[in-house]
Structures are given as C-alpha cells and as structure tokens.
Amino acid sequence: xxxxxxxxxxxxxxxxxxxxxxxxxxxxxxxxxxxxxxxxxxxxxxxxxxxxxxxxxxxxxxxxxxxxxxxxxxxxxxxxxxxxxxxxxxxxxxxxxxxxxxxxxxxxxxxxxxxxxxxxxxxxxxxxxxxxxxxxxxxxxxxxxxxxxxxxxxxxxxxxxxxxxxxxxxxxxxxxxxxxxxxxxxxxxxxxxxxxxxxxxxxxxxxxxxxxxxxxxxxxxxxxxxxxxxxxxxxxxxxxxxxxxxxxxxxxxxxxxxxxxxxxxxxxxxxxxxxxxxxxxxxxxxxxxxxxxxxxxxxxxxxxxxxxxxxxxxxxxxxxxxxxxxxxxxxxxxxxxxxxxxxxxxxxxxxxxxxxxxxxxxxxxxxxxxxxxxxxxxxxxxxxxxxxxxxxxxxxxxxxxxxxxxxxxxxxxxxxxxxxxxxxxxxxxxxxxxxxxxxxxxxxxxxxxxxxxxxxxxxx
Length: 460
Ligand SMILES: *Cc1c(COP(=O)(O)O)cnc(C)c1O
Known about the structure:
Blueprint (H helix, E strand, L loop, with lengths): L2 H20 L14 H4 L12 H11 L22 H13 L10 H18 L5 E5 L2 H16 L4 H4 L7 E6 L4 H9 L7 E4 L9 H13 L3 E8 L11 H10 L3 E5 L24 E4 L1 H5 L6 E5 L3 H7 L30 H35 L4 E8 L2 E6 L3 H14 L5 E5 L2 E7 L7 H14 L2
Parallel strand pairs: 2-3, 2-4, 4-5, 5-6
Antiparallel strand pairs: 1-7, 6-7, 8-9, 9-11, 10-11
Helix pairs in contact: 4-13, 5-13, 6-8, 6-12, 13-15
C-alpha cells in the first residue's frame, strides 16, 4: 500500500465512518459475544506475504464493528463518556496524516504552540487563572506527574538522585471517594499504598476536614513527611465532591501541594453555574480535567493546569545532548512536563472542537445532560421497587432495587443483555448500585427517556 492507495482507502474510510455513526442507534450498545471469540477468528501468526487491502478491509468489517462496545452510541450511559465530537475526529485525521512526534518545540512548533494556546483557552473557559499546563494522554499520567512533583518538592529534589531509601516515610492524603489512579500514583512513585491516607467522607461525600487536619498532625508527630493532598472534584463512583476551597487552603497552610482531580466533572465548569462545585480550584497547584470525557475532544486528551510549572519540570524534565535545541534554551519542550518522551499532537482536536461548536454550543450540551439526568432520576424514582441511592451529581446518579444486591445485579445483567442502553455498576455505602451518567455528545432527550422505559420493563 502506498500513499495513492491511502487516498483511495481514506475516502472509503470517511464514508464508512459516516455510515457507522448514522447507524449506531440500530446497534446494541454492547456486543453480545463470548470472551475469546474474536481472538479465535484471527490466524495464529502474522502473514509472510502482503495481502490485498480489500481482504484486510473485509475482515475489519466482519470482525471489528460487531465486536466493539459502541462508545459513541447515543444511549451509552455507562462509566463516563469518551465523547468524540465530529470536528475533533476530523482534527485527529489531520494529526494522523501529519504523524508527527511532538516531544520538543523543534520537532513540532505548531503542535507545541497550539497546545500552549489551547491550555490557555481552556483555562479561560473553565474560569481558572492557572493558564499554563500540558496535555497528557490520561488523568492517570497527570496525577502521577503531580504526585511525583509533590514527592520531590517535599524531599528537596533528592529523591530523583538518591532514591527513597533513607528518606522519611512520605504521606499523601485523599478522600475515600478518589479514583484508583491516586492509588496507582502512590504505588508507582515509591510512596506505597499504605502511605496514601484515605480520609473519611461525610454524608455529602466531602472529605472530613477535621479528620484531614488530624491525620496530618498525627503523621507529623509520628515523624512522617506529608507531601500533598489530592482533592476529589467529581468522584467516579457516584460523583462526590470535596469542599475544594477548604482542602486547598488547608494544604496551603500546612505547606503541602494540592492537586484537584476533576477528570470527569471539569468539563461542566465551562458553565459558570456549576463552578460553585469546585470553588477554590483557582488556588490549587495543579488541576486535571479530561476533555476526552465529557467535553467532546476525542480520546486521548487530559489537560493538567499548573499554577507554576517549574516544580513539575524540575521533577520530570531531562535534557540530554540529543534533545537540546541548538541556540535556544528558553523554549517549551512539553516532554519535560510529563512522563513519556514521545507525545502526540493532541491540541489540534481542542482547537477544532472549540471553534466548530463554540463554548455556547458545548455548554448547551452539558446543560441538557444535567437536566435530562435529573428527569431520568425522577422517572426511575417512580418505578415500583426502584430506589435512587445517590441523587444526581451533575449528570451522574445511582439506583438500586429495594429487593437487594442480588436482584439489582440481576437487573443490570438483563439491561445490558437487552442492548438498548448500557449501564455499569458500583458499590456505595456497602450497597451494589447501578450508575447512570448522561453525557454522550449526540444523545437526545428521547434517548435518555429510554433508561426509564427499559428499567420499567425489565424490573417487573
Ligand atoms: C476517569 C477518571 C480518572 C482516570 O482517567 P484516565 O484519563 O482514564 O486516566 C481519574 N479520575 C477521575 C475522577 C475519573 O473520572
């Protein structure tokens, strides 16, 4: 296959993509297939000889679409969304065609500079003064970067050279509602799971401030070294929020760095009326939100805002001779802000997204999702035997059957086997719950009403 063939097949792929999206409502959201069946349909080894593109294409059509869970399906209400607005998909096609590796300014001047400007645009759209930052692949990487920076700042940047043996026992604080990426960060950063202090939450799902202050004081008294606090702004399980301003202020008073995890809920903050949920995020050292979840920038795109990028660059940046830019030292090389060296050109899809829909267009979608989620929760509350367990936090709520965990679990299995909608589970206060999030880029009020229709039918 050469570039002329690429022209031909790309056009075919564009037609296929349009047809695929137009036909999504007719497909079950999640495929009904047995584990192993796709792998079993593939040959055991790579071919020795080239195959015609038509044969490869035919196998793609035969095996892949029917073997995928359709994340862009308008009735995908599981997990959190991974919205790919059409304009962002177009930008990805162009970034894909250029196929650059954007590790240094010199390897990608436009990618680097558009990234700097998009971080600024997004900060402005969210009402954050932290107008500098970096686009990572995932919130997990952003949180790991923030935790490594907390560690090094607390150790006076000696962990990087000496390692952690001989260092005091480090402690990080987060609520019991924070995402498992925080657990992963303390494990990978050499801090250790036991040194992530999971502070209890109150009845509103917010970190207990007295418990947080007490834990820090007790740790200091025991000779441990507190390094920072991760603030939960929209927990994954049921959408819990810490009192962001209070936690950030306490961290500041204690001389600790703060990192706000708003991976999902951050997108809603383009609407001023939702910012009350994270008041105080403006004062945090670091904030992460994923435009690839709710906003519409095709996966992957996780933006980390930094009040001062200096400490993170000091922690993660290396500039060996082969990565120097001759004649220019004061240049932004984004690899120095994150864990991997190689990086994709992710800013282009944000540029296309903002311009093709406008902030007002994006706000309108998010506002619809929040109000449709409230309607769906009210409709489910009226279904006999159904109990709303957690009320909507933005567009996320959870429900269960009064009949108990086993009945709820069986209901979820029936819902997902049915295929009209897709929901997933969590555990809340010891109870098995079914999560509902409304947020798919193309969903309509009618799609959302299908949740109550399906639950009513299948819970009888
Ligand atoms: C989804 C999510 C994450 C992890 O996001 P990735 O980008 O997949 O690493 C972290 N925190 C919260 C609150 C999330 O919702």
